[in-house]
Each structure stands twice: as structure tokens, then as C-alpha cells.
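Z., the sequence and structure:
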Amino acid sequence: MLIAIIGALGALPGGAASKSDPPAPKFSVSTANPVEADFQRVMALDDAAHDEIDKWIKDNGAFARQGAGLTEAVLSLKIEQRLAPVKLAYEDFLQRHPKHARGQLAFGSFLNDLGDEAEARKRWEKALELDPSNPAAYNNLANSYGQTGPVAKAFELYAKAIEMNPRQAIYYHNLASVIVLHRKDAAEHYRISEQQVLRHALELYRLAQKFDPDSFQLATDLAQVFYGLQPPDHGGAIAAWSAALPLARNGQEREATHLHLARVKAAAGRLNEARQHLNQVTDPALAGVRSRLARELMDKALPQPTKDDGRRVTLPGQPK
């Protein structure tokens, strides 16, 4: 679906979608190889279209907050129309150069962004057939298998991508995310317990951070793992969310992280600190989660009912 390109910040807790091959540098059409020059022209068209779409989405979000934004359907149609000539350019290039591996790979990513996962997989399989030494093709195919199965195939393909390029953060990040999402399959595949699977995912996220230490998404994906650990590791969770906080890219991400910190500190019994984090949250989009956590904090602070009166104590301003 085209509207998937628009995206939105998830509520608590969240998870990361698998990422395709690393972003390539902006292309220059200055090259002595005519085929390569042709390919770079297509990529330049793709870059320009996505830059424009990114601006539309950002501007529309600002307008929407003022009550004047386009509807999702209208914005989706506008995006579809903008990308149509880019798709034609890819198809024309690959019709003339069907054995161009990077062209097949790039077109697969383009189609995947449009929601055409089946055709994207075909393009990535073709790219891998043409160039078995390209780790991005293994990564992108692994993303596909991670979504539709068999998941064991995704684990194998990610491992191959990491083997070929062990310094690429995305490959560790994607593997860790699919392991967390499919922890039962991962436990069977690696022949370890589900708790060991989660700890393995933590190790992979930390390896990814060595090569991408400033990624907020990576830091939050790592921190999310602590919600599944048994017994709970409150100290580790607090440290992970605290490390994510300064990496937030905007106010909403920062406030969402404060909500997570309120949650994990409340679980650790640090109620006053949890309240301080809640006081940092003013975004209306996060009001529902904030209210629920505030009620949970109040419940933790309430005295336990006596044996003679099991009724809940109601404080002023608290829902009955």
C-alpha cells in the first residue's frame, strides 16, 4: 500500500520494521560507462521523487496539526502519481539491461516501498542470481522471508549478509528484530530457550550500535527487548531507555521515551522518578498512554485494602 510510505510514530511499546539495503550516496550522471550513466539517471529520478515526497509528508503533517492537511487518501494518490514516472524509468532500464544486478536490487526496494512485496522478492532473487557477492541482496531477501516465511530462511540470509559485510549495522539490526518478532521460531532454529533468544537479540543490537551509535530507532529497539526478559532486569531497562533519550530526533520521540522511562522506573519501585518523567509529557498524541501510566502509579502508591474493607480507596480526581 502506498500509504505505508507515509508512516507514523508508534505508541508504546513498538517494534522496528526490517530495513532494506543501506542508503546509497546521491548519484552523479558523470561516468564514462553509458550503462552506468543510464542507471544513475534512474537513481537520480528516484532520489528526487523521494526527497519531494518526504517534504510533502513533513509539510502535510504540519498542516494537519493546524487542521488543514490533506487526507491520507489524497496524499497517497499524490505520491502514487509522483512515483509513476520513476517506476516506468526502472522498467525501461531493466528491459534494456535485464542483467544489471544493482538495477534489479534497486527496483525491488522501490517496489517494496510501494507495497508490492511479491514482485520485490522476484527482483531481489534475480539480483542475487546475477551477483551472489552482494550482501544487500541477501539482506533484502531476508526481510521478505522474515515477513512471509519461512522465517528460518531469513535467519540464514541475514547471517550470510553479515558474513559478507560484518560492519553494516542494518544487517545486525534486522536480524535482531526478526529474532524478537519470531522468538519461538528462533528458539527452534538456534536450539536455545526463548529467554536465550532475547539475550542473543540484545547482543546483536549492541553489535549494530557499534557501527551506528546515534540511531534512535536502534536504541529503542534494543530497550524494548527488556520488556520480555524474565526475571525482569529493571536496571538494564532503565539504562537502555536512558541511553535512547538523548538520541530522540523530535519532541514526540523524546516524550515517548519519557513514558517508557516512567514505566520501567515504576516497575523498579522508583515512583517519584517515574512521576518526573510523566511530567515531561505534554503531547496530546501521547495523552492516553500518559493517563494510563499515571493511574498505574497512583495504584502503586495506594495502601492495600484491609481485610475488613476490600473496597478500593478513591482519591479526589480519581475515576471511581
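Residues 34-65 form the longest helix (32 residues). Residues 42 and 53 are 17 Å apart (CA to CA).

Let me know what you think.
H.
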